[in-house]
Model the fold of this input.
Amino acid sequence: MGKTEVGYGFSLITEQDAYLFKEGNHFRLYEKMGSHIVDVDGVSGTFFAVWAPNAVEVSVIGDFNLWDKEAHPLAARWDGSGIWEGFIPQLGKGAIYKYHIVSKENEYQVDKSDPYAKHCETPPKTGSIVWDTGYGWNDGEWMAGRAKANALNAPCSIYEVHLGSWRRLPEQGNRWMSYGEMAEYLPGYVAEMGFTHVEFLPIMEHPFYGSWGYQTTGYFAPTSRYGTPQDLMHLIDVLHQNGIGVIFDWVPSNFPSDEFGLTFFDGTHLFEHQDPKKGFQPEWSSYIFNHGRYEIRAFLISSALFWLDKYHADGLRVDAVASMLYLDYARQDGEWIPNIYGSKENLDAIYFIKRFNEVVYQEYPDVQTTAEESTSWPMVSRPAYVGGLGFGMKWNMGWMHDTLEYFSKDCIYRKFHQNLLTFNVWYAFFENFILPLSHDEVVYGKGSLLHKMPGDDWQKFANLRLLFGYMFGEPGKKLIFMGGEFGQWDEWYHEESLAWDLLDHPAHQGVQKWVQDLNRFYREEPAMHQLDFSGAGFEWIDYRDADASILAFLRKPATGGDLIMIAANFTPVPRTNYRFGVPRAGCWRELLNSDSKIYGGSGYGNLGGMDAVPLPSHGHNYSLSLILPPLGIVFLKNDAPAAAGTIQPQEEPAPDK
Done:
């Protein structure tokens, strides 16, 4: 095919765009770079722009020109930005393309997908697709009010989902559901369960399905495995119409080594560090972004804003923050390069993280960013202007590991390890913590949450209900990975559907009902969420009785109001006439009991509640004598004094014994 004129003298990129890009402060690059369907002098076509500063030739190849690298060359801009651009007339939506790049370095030639592509071929194909992001949204009510729903003092209970394995269709070859099909099922289920948000494992395009999306190649393109960009927008739209926020996992730390992707993009280490001691991540065999390069910062922050802008995402959970903060992450001595001060902190990545958070909250103050950060780095969820990293919240990985370690122990040994539960409170308010029971804890031989629990089947289910009750009682926002909410037996496998048939069995129905009621209670009671991040909302009643494996504490609202008392028994032995001090007289109503028969328990409880008596205990002038069910947790509410009343009988059945 012969060479075709590309240009018309048209460009979407202004001098100001190029200037901001070069200094790392252009955060809407998706409006300029990549492919864009435009009209030029009455001629419809597609404008292309790609950053390849070390190339000597760049051309657009695709199905429209039989992949002829000579047919549609791009021109390098005159301003030193390294951007190549051009307009191809009469080329529109759906065209499949790549960039053919010839490098200055040893005449290296390669075909690359578009880093700014908004749609891609379904893997294993690797072409980019000319597409738009137009969509008629119907979530205006949610968007207008989401600042309140996403506030730090609001309830936040997250349902973590992997789209390809939440529900599959065995009658159709075990295929996954499309975005459109998910929109028919997922929003209703999440709303019925009472979760406030959904968090999607990365939906950005990724070549290896087994990476669950964490090996990203398409930083502006949702995976086409499940449909088009507009199909995903429809799913998010329906979630919002059901009052459910949407959080995206996002990976600005590393990217895979596939030749068609970002690595060695223009024959040089453009997106990654050149030295493998800084540029290659041995733990995941992936490349590390050069966060010190201005254009890379602009690229990544533009990606973040893209999902908030075009897809109405309500938050971003940033993966593997620790791998960005430390130059020696997953490296032995001699395998990393210290910073200019001779230390291990990655100064470029720290600056990038702070800048990312500053820009996100400046542009979208009604969303939240969350860090998956596994170390004790200080002030992760504090603003950058006071020395923090600027995230809104942080996953409490320490709580997750300590809690699961405790629950996995046989009940007879738990009295020796009560510190695994109590230690968390010493640091619980240093950060804005989310308590995660995430996908990472139910894969690679770790077993499902239910499988981790000790004892016979009855004890396993009782322990799982106790675990969820303890998590919802503790200060901090909540996250449960899909399948845990009904007690999946098998650990998660991305090639299989969740075992929904388990819900034919009462024990699994009981766990699901328990999580549903916990979500409702957590959302409805201000004491359970308003001060999740403040020590003023939490008070120990009893944490010393390790021999009996008993814990009890109070949750308090922001201004006076109703108090919630939570008491847990981590042994299979019921405790009767167990006295706890409380700060108020009046009725303490038992509103939730994990041992209730409706959840599959044995029925031990407190007959709806009781009045506190003027008998001092645990430093308080009043006390309650409670029955603590075996492997159970109870939630009791004391109304504010002006509204205090008498005992209201509950529907919970009386104890068996």
In short: Residues 1-5, 643-657 have pLDDT under 50 and may be disordered. The longest helix spans residues 506-524. The first strand starts at residue 34 and ends at 40. The CA atoms of residues 399 and 517 lie 23 Å apart.
